[in-house]
Design brief:
The chain has about 425 residues and is of the alpha/beta class. About 45% of the residues lie in helices and about 20% in strands. It folds into two domains: about 20-270, Aldolase class I (TIM Barrel, Alpha-Beta Barrel); about 330-415, Arc Repressor Mutant, subunit A (Orthogonal Bundle). The protein has helices at about 1-10, 60-75, 80, 100-115, 130-140, 155-160, 165-180, 200-210, 230-235, 245-260, 310-315, 330-345, 350-355, 360-365, 365-375, 390-415; strands spanning about 20, 35-40, 45, 55-60, 85-95, 115-125, 145-150, 185-190, 215-220, 265, 270, 285-290, 295, 300-305, 320-325, 345-350, 375-380, 385, 420-424. Bound molecules: iron/sulfur cluster (SF4).
Length: about 425
């Protein structure tokens, strides 16, 4: 009922979001922006973490080889669509991308050879993968942004999360990474792990900032209903912080970060230099390569098949592995953009006008009145900046969006290789 009302008020439509099976001609590739980012998905992991909602499979050498060939074919299939575009960034995520580090070198070379690329390259790293050889290779490949998935320094909690390393190994990994002087080193830390206390979070923060990293990404564990962890929490009756305790924790994170000289750079990130960011999710338009990768440009949001065998087979037949497409209305596209700018913590009025030719405050009058009325956002120099309360509400909205929307979309995509239609 609430969703229905919100849909009518904000989206001005009563129909649900519709994802339809991709057919040639139902995406207008000519509407692709002239400047665009690339995302490369490597879905292989050595072990599976029980909380993980992402598209991943256990590593198998032969499958990984066939996957690499398929990925290169997919990049080639975009030749006509991307050849006159500027590729402004490449992010490599997973899975555990460094399991295919040699293959990634070939994949990146194809992108660089075929397309006009100039920008940052970022990669996610699992702590046990870090060694001199890997870091030298990343430097050689001109990868300049690193995101290390630490999650916590607490050995017991690491075990609970199914992470196969200890605080000692994290220490060695960060120390070595720092000695290589990448342009940006981001560390992921998780809060609201069952059994975690405020003191535990404080301890994690103090430890991570002592390494003088460039960026901290800190986010509450979102328990997707489809995961093993969700079942375990229910079976064992494990407790976690409620919304109001989470609000206090956000405040504590802000205070400790400021003490260490770090400013909030988005809903989940803190940094010393706002120009130097690892930020894979905030790009305005991007094309995703790989099993389960999504793409967004113009009025289109689409996802490749999540099924790795189906992905490889499609490319062996020289077919694009696109599974389902959501064609947004202009209003939905504006809201999608606003959602990610809220993640950034600020919305630029001028940029909205450049993109959509409209005054955002007139177009979304009610939304901006509510932001002001409930002190969720304040205006400054042509920007609407989210307040602490606004950021807390965004956290809440994002959690609900993940649990009710993404969980369904991803679970269906993991269960069915090719989907006819999804309405959410
Ligand atoms: S959280 Fe990362 S390492 Fe763990 S299973 Fe998911 S993708 Fe793999």
């Amino acid at each position: 009922m609430v969703t229905h009302l919100l849909r009518r008020m904000i989206l001005k439509k009563k129909e649900k979001f519709l994802f339809k099976r991709y057919e040639e001609g139902n995406i207008d590739f000519d509407s692709m922006n002239n400047e665009i980012g690339i995302y490369i998905h490597i879905p292989f992991c050595k072990s599976i973490c029980p909380y993980c909602p992402y598209n991943k499979v256990l590593y198998e050498k032969n499958k990984a080889q066939r996957y690499k060939e398929a990925l290169i074919k997919e990049i080639h299939l975009y030749k006509e669509k991307l050849q006159d575009k500027k590729i402004t960034s490449i992010y490599i995520g997973g899975g555990t991308p460094t399991l295919l580090i040699k293959e990634l070198e070939d994949i990146l070379n194809v992108v660089k050879d075929k397309y006009d690329f100039c920008g940052d390259i970022g990669i996610e790293i699992y702590p046990t993968a870090v060694n001199e050889e890997l870091l030298s290779k990343l430097k050689e490949m001109k990868i300049n942004l690193i995101s290390l998935g630490v999650q916590t320094f607490d050995d017991e909690k690491l075990k609970f999360l199914g992470r196969a390393y200890t605080e000692n190994e994290i220490h060695k990994a960060i120390t070595l990474i720092n000695s290589f002087h990448f342009q940006c080193v981001d560390i992921d830390i998780m809060t609201n792990i069952p059994g975690q206390t405020c003191k535990d979070i404080q301890r994690d923060l103090e430890k991570v900032y002592d390494y003088e990293i460039d960026q901290l990404s800190i986010y509450p564990l979102i328990v997707f209903p489809m995961t093993h962890l969700s079942r375990r929490i229910k079976q064992k009756g494990l407790t976690r912080f409620n919304e109001w305790e989470e609000k206090k924790i956000l405040q504590m994170i802000d205070t400790i970060s400021k003490d260490y000289g770090y400013e909030r750079t988005s809903i989940w990130t803190y940094g010393k230099n706002t120009e130097n960011r690892y930020t894979s999710v905030t790009r305005e338009s991007f094309v995703g390569f790989g099993g389960g990768a999504s793409s967004h440009f113009g009025n289109y949001f689409y996802m490749n098949t999540f099924n790795i065998d189906a992905y490889i087979s499609a490319l062996e037949e020289e077919r694009l592995p696109i599974n389902i497409v959501n064609t947004m209305t202009d209003r939905e596209r504006m809201i999608f953009w606003l959602f990610w700018r809220c993640y950034d913590g600020e919305i630029h009025q001028k940029r909205f006008y450049e993109l959509f030719g409209k005054d955002m405050k007139k177009e979304f009058q009610l939304l901006f009145i509510l932001l002001k009325l409930f002190s969720l956002g304040k205006e400054k120099n042509g920007k609407v900046i989210l307040t602490d309360l606004g950021r807390f509400i965004y956290h809440y909205v994002e959690k609900q969006y993940s649990i009710h929307y993404l969980n369904y979309l991803w679970q269906r995509s993991m269960e069915e290789a090719w989907i006819e239609e999804i309405q959410i």
